[in-house]
Fold this sequence. Notes:
Elements lengths: L7 E2 L6 E5 L3 E5 L4 H6 L4 H9 L7 H24 L7 H17 L23 E3 L9 E2 L2 H15 L9 E7 L2 E8 L2 E7 L5 E3 L2 H4 L19 E9 L2 H13 L8 H9 L4 H4 L5 E11 L15 H11 L7 E4 L2 H13 L8 E8 L2 H7 L9 E4 L6 E12 L4 E13 L2 E7 L3 H7 L6 E7 L3 E7 L37 E2 L7 H11 L12 H8 L18 E4 L42 E15 L5 E18 L6 E2 L1 E2 L2 H10 L41 E2 L5 E10 L2 E9 L3 H13 L4 H7 L7 H11 L2 H5 L3 H5 L6 H13 L6 H11 L20 E5 L7 H10 L3 E3 L8 E4 L5 H9 L3 E2 L1 H10 L3
Helix pairs in contact: 2-4, 3-4, 14-15, 18-19, 19-24
Amino acid sequence: xxxxxxxxxxxxxxxxxxxxxxxxxxxxxxxxxxxxxxxxxxxxxxxxxxxxxxxxxxxxxxxxxxxxxxxxxxxxxxxxxxxxxxxxxxxxxxxxxxxxxxxxxxxxxxxxxxxxxxxxxxxxxxxxxxxxxxxxxxxxxxxxxxxxxxxxxxxxxxxxxxxxxxxxxxxxxxxxxxxxxxxxxxxxxxxxxxxxxxxxxxxxxxxxxxxxxxxxxxxxxxxxxxxxxxxxxxxxxxxxxxxxxxxxxxxxxxxxxxxxxxxxxxxxxxxxxxxxxxxxxxxxxxxxxxxxxxxxxxxxxxxxxxxxxxxxxxxxxxxxxxxxxxxxxxxxxxxxxxxxxxxxxxxxxxxxxxxxxxxxxxxxxxxxxxxxxxxxxxxxxxxxxxxxxxxxxxxxxxxxxxxxxxxxxxxxxxxxxxxxxxxxxxxxxxxxxxxxxxxxxxxxxxxxxxxxxxxxxxxxxxxxxxxxxxxxxxxxxxxxxxxxxxxxxxxxxxxxxxxxxxxxxxxxxxxxxxxxxxxxxxxxxxxxxxxxxxxxxxxxxxxxxxxxxxxxxxxxxxxxxxxxxxxxxxxxxxxxxxxxxxxxxxxxxxxxxxxxxxxxxxxxxxxxxxxxxxxxxxxxxxxxxxxxxxxxxxxxxxxxxxxxxxxxxxxxxxxxxxxxxxxxxxxxxxxxxxxxxxxxxxxxxxxxxxxxxxxxxxxxxxxxxxxxxxxxxxxxxxxxxxxxxxxxxxxxxxxxxxxxxxxxxxxxxxxxxxxxxxxxxxxxxxxxxxxxxxxxxxxxxxxxxxxxxxxxxxxxxxxxxxxxxxxxxxxxxxxxxxxxxxxxxxxxxxxxxxxxxxxxxxxxxxxxxxxxxxxxxxxxxxxxxxxxxxxxxxxxxxxxxxxxxxxxxxxxxxxxxxxxxxxxxxxxxxxxxxxxxxxx
Length: 920
């Protein structure tokens, strides 16, 4: 380790020094602010922490030290329990934990249920409790044009009876594209962090919130400025640089990158394990105020000392709660337009993705005068920018094959930022759509995001074609499937879509079907995602075409900023490894898989090009920052489901004592192959071929942690001061693999409707599958149902009924893959349970409900499921037979239709009441 990567310790016990280029070695007093800032998560620092007397600290310094050490303990736990790759020694981990325990004993205010000292191993709650907000947390109404914004502004002036000659103070700030959060502080201490939910109740994600570094555990500033109780509203988001770092880490680990910062923040904030959230670099800005109480004994008295939004922000700054720097005080509509124009031009220049501009009446008294509708305040509005359109190059048009065989052209674009994320591909739907848009491969094209969400290729920039005609070419839909080679054709005459008829064995279709059956809408096997599905069904998907790009020992290529990698010289005599046979040739074998079946599965991964930047931190220390800048074109193989060979972890004295007192030793397994060690009989030196050694006696290595599911592939000799020690090197199923098998076991008893969705029956989605499962009661009944039986079920149309009947008819054909899948699943215990009658009260029996727009607490499908589970009909269109229409954000024509027909329109809160009681 270099001097710049570690702290230098003076001989005086407890003194910490760090290397600085300007002053050499600087000494800091133990317990001082500089001393705490200089500490690093090294073993040496941990030892000194263990010797340090925390009773000599002030409460403020103790809180800073606690936060720093607790974060390191969190990281240690993540590395040990989740990544199976500890980064700290047991002694260092124990020393940090003891430091936390001493700090909490000396300063009881630091002791809280979320502290690492209160956690056992890797266990955390899997559920988020539903908690009522002390005061309602509303959404904002949106406008999409300057005209609509002016109408709102004029209505505020009119409703307040505000004199035209008198400026009306307002505040403008960028609308952060993140997730709303309500922070509850009592006597200055963070008590809870709640999601918005439906505005009345939210989910308690306090454990996860405590991992966000910008959210203080205790409000700072003078005591007289800290209230007895306060709700601080704000937004959790991910900065662009942190988003790019996270995606680089995702790609380096072989995981799919996140589409945009909001998705990354949402997935991180609602992790069931807060240790994962702690690694995700989330940020927070406060933008609103809920309930505020100073209390009768408070120096300020009981009155509300915050008169306007600006004063609230000043208080937040005193408390150490971050506020967005992108806000302005304005007094005219023109100043609002100036703000909109400025950030419209600088959307890509600020540190986070933005979703528009929020305009608020600044005075809190005037806010109360204006009041609110059922879902949004009248004193604030969100102006949404029009969809951002950018030009980029159409590099190619490829095709992809979906789970039902549909072949879809996909535009391959030169990567470009559009409305918050990088767009490199977008669907073109079918060959007719390509012709209609008039695009040619090589064109400069216009790209935007429909609704700022879905990438869309608008069309070509025709003036950019001049002089480049010879570089452009027309796209032609392929005649044969790019995955299996089968001849493509429409499913029936007149269809615009063409399909691959090789449903059973087309690798692309099988991969997509496995992804689909594992999704939340089907078996909900969370850890069987896209990459795992590819590894099971088509592990050679990214196999290089030539040995010239096969680099088995290169996992990344390091370059200086702006430099190109050196040319790769292939190793002489190197050959590509033999192609692997997929573990799954169809879905039938899914529930018969074992971890042993997956041990040898390897997938191809491209070595990344990584720029190494050297920077100097605020403390003057040099540090190296890695940035993934692209792919090198060089490929190597990595294990898909098992860990790479890793030396076993040596047990601590405490763990050895516990094992001696009663832990059952792992059963011995017969040794075979390799040159035997004199002391253990295990192979030594070179790694033994995977799959040839079932494992060795863990009892032979009592001082090492060899899990029961691990396989010892070799034994290394480690030379120490006391001699030569044998260190077992192990592989085992990865953490995600173990979770995947646990989830597959639960899926054997999935609800009947989920089994129907998992069968990939064309046109059959979760809502209709629920209806059929509920009405028919068992898989046997559905297998034998006629079209007439199914169309008799309210909500099941003739096309879906025909599709279901045809699918089950095919299962009775000799040799049909669908029949083989169905029988194999039933033999494994899948789909044999009868449909359970909903345990929920049937509050919506006989009622028809339409949901339109976006709801905070429900996706489109989950809202429909909530209606169906309670006996109601979830309709897709509004008619005279509709009983209620639930109106979410950005509701469209259905809201107008409901108003025209006089049908009751409900807010999300009223929808929750309807679900619970059946009445409003």
